[in-house]
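#struct-pred

JT: dropping the chains for the assembly here, can someone run the whole complex?
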Amino acid sequence: MQREAAAWEQIFELHYRRVFAFVRYRLRSAEEAEDIASQAFEVAYARAEHFDYRGAPIGAWLMGIARNLVRDHIKKLGRRGIDDEFDDSLEVSAPDEVDVVGLRRDLLVAMQTLTGDQREVLEFRFLLDRSVAETAVLMNRSEDAVKNLQRRALAAMQRVLAGEGYGAAGGVT
Amino acid sequence: MTPERLDSLLQRALETGTIPSDATPEERAELVPVLGAAGSLRLNAAQVDSEASASMPTARARFQRHIADQRAPAPATPAVVRRSGLWANVLAGRRLAFATSIAAIGLVAILALVIVQPFGTVETASALTVDDYVQVQGVVAGIDGNKVTVQSSELGNLEVALSDLTSVTDESGAREASSLKPGEPVVVGGVVTAKRAIAASALAVARPQAAPTPVANANVPVLKRFKEGLEGTVRLVSLSPDGQRARVLVVMPNSSIFVDVDRASIDALLAANPALLGARVRVGAGDGLPGAVFRLQPLNQLPDTGLSGQPQFQNIRGVVVERKALTLRVKTDRGEATVLIRAGTSISLGQSGLTLDDIRSGQALVGHEIAVAGNPDRTAPRGIVAEIIVVLPKPKGGTN
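RK: done, full complex below.
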């Protein structure tokens, strides 16, 4: 890929939000997420020659870079590993922050109870706003399989949220 | 009711926002809670998206600088920015990066100002990190009611909102905001609002000077590799909201550079100088710190404020002799001062040996030496509203 500034401007504008969101759900603060998301673009720019147009979409490529950066970041912080990254997020917010923070904590708790596939499908579909078709490509599954996985994941999540009393109280009780 | 049928109904409901009318009551009962979970996820996604929006200007500027750096021909050393005159040395800011762990009660960020140049444009704009506390130097360029445009030679024009809560002072004391005039050098402290303006809590005015020459496009580089001999004056200090990262702008005779530093460096800077801005420092290697994070060594020189006769925001150092709720009585070399802790005050416990629980217990601060950066408190003769407090160990044979 040519290192054309104009092309990278468009790549940044098109993909930054999703890369940020992808990272944000794994780290404790928006500032960390911004830093890692920014690094993802810097790394991608440095490795531009290695990107293969015929392979995965550039969005997936960026996500892969971001995932590795998050993993490295967590290792640097001496944390436990990528599988426990949501635990770290739980430490983020003070209890008196806005409601949505409580919601996020609940969701992250619920996310931990899901299987890897279930977590991934919910991330793609609802957190990164991917369509069923896009998710199918990204997960290397059929669209029907994605629909089925998404329903089972949402049902599992709802069971956990209900068990936490979320539905009644609007937050962890 | 088959799994495939439920999958299809769910997908249609997600796309339309309503459960399809052909769903049976049993199917509806299955779908309602599932859609509730989806709604929660979407609500949270909206919040994250707003965070992404807030961070995008900073990230865009950073990526743009990265591209520019990579395309520059073989920069063996940090790039040098040619500056034009006295005021070219005054200002610039950006978010920072700190690495050491500190215990903190309310978190503040001193300043997150970035030079942002939207792709494809030439003019410099400034992007501030919302909710950060910022201190920045500049010159009044215009006044429109309660809005003051402050011009920075490196950040461009900053919009500063004054209110009844803004403490406006000059060398002689309190001053009416309405008396501000274009060309007056100022130091502004306040919180960045959602509109990327600064809601000023304090504004200090110096003697009038000629307005600076605007700098349309100042690309200040970020230090990536340690370089011996970097010494200069701190013109901007910025702490991230969580207090974990910091960046300073170091201005040298013919160049300036942003340096990501560890939090301990900022604490040391505050402890060693009566002012953060204007302190003379040497950039040290970042051994043991994350990549591209360095240490600052305060130099024993009088602060160079860059503002003739400018009244820096109050910074004091002394021993806490009493604490009543959020008010500290501090014994300094020049008498007693009152320090007011506000909700956003950043308190770094550093090497004090104290913990958050100690602080919550009430009297733990008494006897400790503290260094305070903040704004004048109009309600007390020697009062200071603290923005940052660095708690130091108790002095030997201490006051208390």
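JT: nice. Chain B is about 20% helix and 35% strand. The CA atoms of residues 302 and 349 of chain B lie 26 Å apart.
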